[in-house]
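We store sequence with structure; for instance:
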Amino acid sequence: MERIPSRTRCGECQSRVVGTFCELDDRNLGILDRGKSFHTYKKGQVIFHEGTPALGVYCLRSGRVKASCASGGGKTHILRIHVPGALLGLEDLFAGKVHTTTAETLEEGTACFVDRSLVLEIFAHQPRAAQAIASELARLAQRSQRERTELTLGGVREKVARVLLDLARHHGNTQEKGVLIDVDLTREEIAAMAGTAVETTIRQISAFRDEGILASSGPGLIVLDASRLAQAARAQGQGNSHS
């Protein structure tokens, strides 16, 4: 039997405990180990492009990955940021034949590729894992609907506030002054997440700094007042869109 390098074994993967594959028993983990391929990615490297064939899923072991898609006028909209444990391309595996997003690394990381046929074979014999997949697909569908709705709510202030609040909640590192948004994003990328123009996004971030809601930390941002940022995230006549 071929010896599997310890650094690539699913049973020893730290992200496994928060991922969908955590439901697999030892036998199916062994099958997964022997059938997958392990890849290392540099910062800024594309894992797959929008419109290319969806041949399987990528289980993110380390690093963070942004998922984006082309929007009107040739612009790019960043939908979300994936963290270790995420299955990249999961929706496309079951819903269509091509990737509907582009996955690009925000930092150096690793991921394992699992062919579509192997995914279907394993989950056909693992009811708990199949249920976990169904739950994850439902969660992703709900999130996508929420994201589409948020793009139409409010002006630049609300949209930028919602993005910053979401980043602080999911990628925040609590410090003495406040919550450091611990992910390397340019102002262009924040604008792409908010669906706003880069120039107006930069002005709005400056306004939040002037109001004492944000502070700069090198190229990064610190949320000084999360409650005021949450208030700013509420569009006219709407409740807070991030829960």
Residues 11-150 form a domain with the Jelly Rolls fold (CATH 2.60.120.10). Residues 43 and 81 are 14 Å apart (CA to CA). Residues 236-243 have pLDDT under 50 and may be disordered. Residues 127-150 form the longest helix (24 residues).
